[in-house]
Amino acid sequence: MNFEAVIGLEIHVEMNTKSKMFSTAPIRYGALPNSLTVPLDFAFPGTMPVVNKQAVINAIRICNALHMTIDRELWFDRKNYFYSDLPKGYQITQQQRPIGSNGYLEIETSLGKKKISIERLHLEEDTCKQLHSWDCTLLDYNRAGIPLVEIVSRPDLRSGQEARQYAEKIRSIVSFLDVSNGKMEEGSLRCDVNISLRPIGSEKYGTKVEIKNLNSFANIEKAVDYEIKRQEMILISGDSVIQETRRFDEGIKQTVLMRLKTDAVDYKYFTEPNITPIRLSEEFIKDAIETSPELAEVKLARYKDLGLSDYDSQILISNKNTCAYFDKAIKSGPNAKLLANWIIVDVQAVLNKEMIEIDDFKVSPEHLGKLVLMIEKEQVSNKQGREIFQKLLEKDEDPEVIKKALGVDLINDNNMIAEAVKHVIDENPQAVVDYHNGKDRAVGFLVGQVMKKTAGKANPAIVSKLVIEELKRR
Amino acid sequence: MDFLALDILSLHQALLDGKINPIELIKLSIEKAKKDQNNAFEYICEKEALAAAANLDPNKKHNLLWGIPYVLKDNFSTKDIPTTASSNILKGYVPIYSSEVYLRLSEQGAILIGKATLDELAMGGTGMTGHKGFTFNPWDPTHKRMIGGSSCGSAAVVAAGIVPFSIGSDTGDSVRKPASFAALVGMKPTWGRISRFGLFPFAPSLDHVACFTRNVTDSAVVLEALAGRDEKDSSSATAPLEKYSEAIKPDLKGKKFAVIKEINNSISNPYIHAVFDATVKALQERGAIIEYVSMDMKLCKAIYPTYIVISCCEATSNNANLDGIKFGPRFDGKDYEEVMTKARTEGFCEMIKRRFVIGSYALFKDNQAEIFLRAQKVRRLIVDATNKILEKCDAILLPASPTTAPLFNGGNSDKLSNEYLISDNHLAIGNFAGLPSIVLPLGFENGLPFGINVTGKKFAEAEVFSLAKGIEDITKLKDLVAKEDK
Amino acid sequence: MKKVDIPLLKKVANNLMFDMKDSEYNTLLEEFDVILCQMELISEIPGVDDVEPMTFPFDVTTDFLREDIPTTPLAQEEALKNAGEVVDGQIRLPKVVG
Q: What's the topology of domain A414-473?
């Protein structure tokens, strides 16, 4: 019997707004515990939630990127339960009226593009952080109340690879929209997988297993692949899959039981009476979308128009910050292909050597762009350009200033160069003979001599041309 | 001169004229508070009040409430002043932030002299369930009668002449009913008119900040000081404000009142009926038009269960934050569940727990349609019916309570009888519909007061004050302080 | 709806993280009978299921959204001063498992 895997993903994304979803406490990472809170975060009696506008704008932008229907009114609900990390004894979420519904995104599979339906997207708030030590748990409320979006897919995914691609696409979207850095290792993107198997052709769903606490996109794929095999083995042997919650053990590369799924918890959802419904006008939604940072697809199309190769474009958009750098640098006017090359090769080499991200790269995009333009316009040679680049790495300033300071200038004057060429060839008659005997390296030698004579300032392309012309005459 | 028995405007004038200075006045009030026999105080803020009086900004002395002593129900958050909601689960809790009501009153120079007792967590109507025991009615020095609740302490301090005004909260009738039992004016404005930021929530969709005074004009002065948008409370209203104390026009000519027959008839006390009818006549003599209208009896009977279900459901959720972990008495346990369970078992009185169980049960998925959601549907029917009545009149007029202050040992009335269901709970209509609603003294039976209730259209506080003042001019019952037992 | 009996009420109470005395469960059972009776009456109100449930007293729809501007947070000591057990600037609980 052949089985197919039926997989759905529930992804929580932590937003990088300046204040929390319902409270005005600031958000920063790595701060002292319980130093970034206001009374509402501890659920002191009488405190009240007030909805963060930027969080709503972010959610609208993500809904738009996922082609979702956006609710024109914002309603919130209480999800009631008791847990150590839940200060109010309920979480404010959107059960009945999620801000986004019925969307999709596309992933690339070996059989082409595949549409994955997305059921809902809603706003909610994060819980406290719990630090478990050997004999106690310590609570830090800095995280309590940070805005989250929850994105729930329909069970359209069929493999570990698809699951990973879907999650990575979500990450790309929230990253490019500047909503979140989407790092699973940091917990700003959390992914729960629901997976069951059923005989191919069957419409009925099998027993669902939940996989939680995944900490990387690669592990999503590994966990799903393992789980598919595990469930397959069970079903083939005639047993039933038990409904349970599992986690992925990186060491043994297997999913492992966390707990059995008990009766579904009844969260006693009801409308949050402290938040009056908020009208989202057409104007507000339109504005949020129009002022949205560019998504990756849009950038790709733009880079294509600029003449960049697919390969170069993909490398740029693999990192949102790299594109941002490119987009700023190109404003200085250089050729897109040249600039892309400089970033992908030369800049990246420095980043690799110093083990930093492009965000920490000292050279400003404006200055790099200007440098590339200088080279393109043949105001300096490639070699001279690299000299200037090295200086930029030491001190980020206008490349024009550096050019003057170094005294580098590209001589493009044909007459001047012709003079020098004549002199050099006069001084090196053997080279002329070599050339006519078919030794092409004589050209390189003579070009080198001309470069020496002009202190490296002659435009090498012109030198080459004129040397060959002169040699032909002799 | 008993300064503390003066109305606010007179007291304000006395301060301006220098007949008494704020520190002397506060000292008087605190002395009287310390002698309180009615168990009205959770905490007397002697130190804080004297410091505030000493630090009053003289430039603000033209504010009507400048230098005036007052009391807050102990479910309003007050920074650095203990706040318990009369519950053991909040013993020792000292808030680190203040409610908007406290902030606004402080800003205008009013001086908080104490926090008043309430029915635990504001969930009650008898003044019997606070963790310090019963709060008594100053109108009965034998201490056999309740002042009602849940704002029992706030009512008692004004009735006893300790302060000229106090703040309470009204979720089903918690200020207006005690006002009826204590010859006070109890005023609940429109939902959202006063910010609830810092008010411990009982049932947010029904909760209102409300006040006790001894005459109608004073309550307009207090509302003026408190009303207006607060961005810390999303539900607070942006509707335009008025200078309520200056907008009172007591002329009743042409004013239309509607008396709901089913509610009026559900009251069986003949004396209350007689006085009410006489007042109606007097109103008519002054040019008012009284119409007797009908509300479906089924809706009238549904008021109480609708109130209980909705309030218990919201309350059970609101109070889930009380777990002894972040604040309140902390218990040991082998796991967090035990820590929470011990705190909540010890900390809540039994009546509260029963209400929470009812609320929780009604919220379970399988039960919501038949209990919680249906109660919310009936709320809509009641509100629609009420607003329909108000389309054709300026206000609804009714006796506030079916009796004078009940005995603590009054025995259980049949909970399904009309009398209990309707007459004792009709004030909740003002909470369902969020309408401005005021109770003022109507008469006395055997030395015990009972009140009359005027409920107007939403945000029509000025109209409600005007109509109430018109009635006050007829009854001449105002500025009444219960005599001390000597 | 399941039949309301004391075992069910005990479950509901425990789900709310508290216990009650046995006598209280009896009182509660009586109160439930009354309420469920009253809800029966309500279900007979003509047109009751034709209307939408009402959460707010009147139309309170707003356009207001809070600008994303953080305020000064509480000092750690202030935030924790009402907590019964504090260790290293954090609230301490017995070890949470699962």
A: Arc Repressor Mutant, subunit A (1.10.10)
